[in-house]
């Protein structure tokens, strides 16, 4: 049974006093291309910006993955195999708790629903613990928090929306999670939208986003006062392979990529164009992009697919910023937006760091009503 927050339990003749605390949130998204992670996969490159000396360490980590399994008929139509998501969660666990011996221990508790790696010492107290995770075919999201925050996390919940083949299969769609931190609600949407670079494909991506916003739904809670839809939450962050492309002929895109003309390419970025036209994500924010396109790379290479003139690709796909992190909410301030360089898949991972203001109840005072 979900716990009631302090605000939900105070009598009517008691006033509560609130202050604002600030927490740092790491949000990362990566389309891993159906590749199972090797046991020795190092994801510190993905996390490194959040742990630099110039910035405070993050309190919450949100990992969103797409295509954790190949999107074939067996995986889309068959029984969901959770072994790969378990393996990814073990990697997250090991990476976040890698320096336990050096860190200050702030809490204790058992990690639920996470499958340990062999090199984890269970006699040590974990600095980060998983509060919720969920897989829908290839889309996977996992949320980790510092142990001392666990008593202040309430009402975690999940909502899945499948909008792939036939408009109802899970090869495309979203997995959203929400929770309350103190008295502030957060929602994180991990999605994989419609693919393709043809005319009209952007409209299908817009339609997927609209469907996710309209169909995602969360429990109202025992007092029926919790946010129900995505946009009802105080702070919302949307991450994933949104699949928006660059609206230019492929040969021009490749030429500009080779010259590293990122600003010219971004002027023709489909997502930015659709935002400006008001066709999708009205009122949402995205930090300035100062990194190369995240898609599509040759396997285990720094060379974009189609830019290697020695190869003859079977299916042409021009580079694009498919992998994005956008947000809305008055309590959020984005500090970083960049990418990692792992060559595991044909995408590069992206990451964002946010400072989030949270409403915290600091005390109570009773009063006499007349």
Biggest sheet: strands, sense, closure? 6 strands, mixed
Strand arrangement in the largest pleated sheet:
3-4-2-1-11-10
Measured by DSSP, the beta-strand proportion falls in 25-35%
Low-pLDDT runs of 5+ residues are 1-7, 99-120
Mean pLDDT: 86
User: How big is the Rg?
Assistant: 21 Å
Number of helices: 8
- Secondary structure category: alpha+beta
| Intertermini distance | 36 Å
Q: Say how many strands there are.
A: 11
Pfam families: Exo_endo_phos2 (PF22669)
Organism: Ziziphus jujuba (Chinese jujube)
Keywords: Hydrolase
Protein name: Type IV inositol polyphosphate 5-phosphatase 9 isoform X2
Describe the structure.
The chain is an alpha+beta fold and 370 residues long. It is 18% helix and 29% strand. It has helices at 6-9, 44-47, 73-77, 83-96, 201-215, 250-258, 262-267, 270-277, and strands spanning 14-31, 60-66, 128-136, 139-146, 153-162, 173-181, 184-192, 235-241, 323-328, 332-339, 350-366. It has a six-stranded mixed beta sheet, with helices on one face. Strands 5-6-7-8-9 form a five-stranded mixed beta sheet. A hairpin with a 2-residue loop joins strand 3 (128-136) and strand 4. Residues 1-7 and 99-120 have low confidence and may be disordered.
């Amino acid at each position: 049974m979900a716990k009631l927050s302090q605000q939900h339990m105070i009598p009517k003749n008691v006033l509560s006093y609130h202050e604002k605390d600030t927490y740092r949130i790491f949000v990362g998204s990566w389309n891993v291309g159906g590749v199972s992670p090797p046991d020795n996969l190092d994801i510190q490159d993905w996390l490194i910006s959040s742990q630099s000396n110039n910035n405070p360490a993050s309190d919450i980590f949100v990992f969103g993955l797409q295509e954790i399994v190949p999107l074939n008929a067996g995986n889309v139509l068959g029984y969901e195999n959770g072994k790969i998501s378990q393996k990814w969660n073990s990697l997250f666990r090991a990476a976040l708790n890698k320096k336990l011996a050096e860190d200050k221990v702030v809490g204790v508790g058992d990690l639920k629903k996470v499958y340990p790696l062999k090199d984890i010492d269970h006699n040590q107290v974990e600095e980060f613990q998983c509060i919720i995770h969920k897989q829908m075919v290839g889309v996977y999201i996992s949320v980790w928090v510092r142990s001392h925050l666990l008593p202040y996390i309430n009402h975690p919940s999940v909502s899945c929306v499948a909008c792939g083949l036939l408009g109802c299969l899970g090869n495309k769609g979203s997995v959203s999670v929400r929770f309350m931190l103190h008295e502030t609600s957060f929602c994180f949407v991990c999605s994989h939208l419609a693919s393709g670079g043809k005319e009209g494909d952007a409209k299908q991506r817009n339609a997927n986003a609209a469907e996710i916003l309209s169909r995602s739904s969360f429990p109202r809670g025992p007092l029926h006062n919790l946010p129900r839809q995505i946009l009802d939450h105080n702070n919302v962050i949307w991450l994933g392979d949104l699949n928006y492309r660059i609206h230019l002929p492929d040969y021009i895109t490749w030429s500009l990529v080779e010259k590293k003309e990122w600003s010219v390419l971004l002027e023709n970025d489909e997502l930015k164009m659709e935002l400006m036209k008001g066709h999708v994500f009205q009122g949402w924010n995205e930090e300035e992009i100062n990194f190369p396109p995240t898609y599509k790379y040759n396997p285990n290479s720094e060379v974009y697919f189609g830019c290697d003139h020695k190869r003859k690709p079977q299916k042409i796909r021009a580079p694009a910023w498919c992998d994005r992190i956008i947000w809305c909410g008055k309590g959020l301030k984005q500090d970083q937006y960049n990418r990692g360089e792992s060559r595991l898949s044909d995408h590069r991972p992206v990451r964002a760091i946010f400072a989030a203001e949270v409403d915290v109840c600091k005390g109570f005072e009773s009063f006499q009503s007349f």
